[in-house]
Design goal:
By secondary structure, the protein is mainly beta. It has 1 helix and 13 strands; from the N terminus they run ββββββββββαβββ. Strands 1, 2, 3, 4, 5, 6, 7, 8, 9, 10, 11, 12 and 13 form a 13-stranded mixed β-sheet that branches. The protein is globular, with a radius of gyration of 16 Å.
């Protein structure tokens, strides 16, 4: 996946959009809401991720940070932004912008990001109307300073290849589903599998 690097927010223009289209665990077709992901970066600021889904009546019960929002209708980004560190950050967000954020190498060693730094991501919810359909979604900005604090390095946006994935799920909804951008080849749904993360290529434009 290509992730453009823009000189500033004034230069943000067209960027690639990918569909979250891998739903391997639903039997008999299942429920596959049309969902999308995009990622780009702004020099001196951070990484931007946009996620949206044309899902009607999304489940939205969680109200507090680090609640189990994956049980709601949820859009998620998992990212390994520092190439020489195998820890990845995950941001899982529901329709109201309530989010869960952690860091670690796998499912078993997750640590809440808020316990490590006071620096926050910037999350804004959004709606997109297209062909008479409405999508819910959000944009998240992961600041350079937040990545620096979490990884103990002086992180700056630059051309590089990183690993990550984007997900759509709703564990407790009337139509449970589990989808990914890059395929996850496990018998049961499991997003915490960095061996199935795909390449995200940050390139200057």
């Amino acid at each position: 996946m290509i992730a453009p690097i823009f000189k500033s927010t004034d230069f943000i223009k067209d960027f690639p959009v990918g569909e979250i289209a891998n739903f391997p665990w639903e039997k008999d077709g299942g429920f596959h809401p049309e969902s999308y992901a995009a990622i780009f970066a702004v020099e001196g600021e951070g990484i931007h991720v946009l996620l949206w889904s044309f899902e009607e009546n999304p489940l939205c019960n969680c109200t507090k940070r680090d609640d189990p929002v994956y049980t709601d209708s949820c859009l998620e980004v998992f990212l390994m932004p520092v190439g020489n560190d195998n820890r990845y950050i995950n941001f899982e967000v529901n329709k109201n912008g309530v989010y869960l954020s952690e860091i670690g190498t796998c499912r078993e060693d997750r640590v809440f990001i808020k316990s490590l730094t006071d620096i926050e991501p910037v999350i804004g919810t959004m709606e997109i109307t297209e062909d008479g359909k409405t999508a819910w979604g959000y944009e998240i900005i992961i600041p350079e300073k937040l990545i620096s604090a979490l990884y103990g390095t002086d992180y700056h946006i630059r051309e590089t290849m990183v690993k990550g994935n984007f997900y759509k799920c709703a564990e407790l909804s009337d139509n449970p589903h589990f989808g990914s951008f890059f395929p996850v080849k496990t018998e049961k749904p499991d997003f915490h599998r960095p061996e199935f993360f795909g390449d995200i290529d940050f390139r200057k434009v």
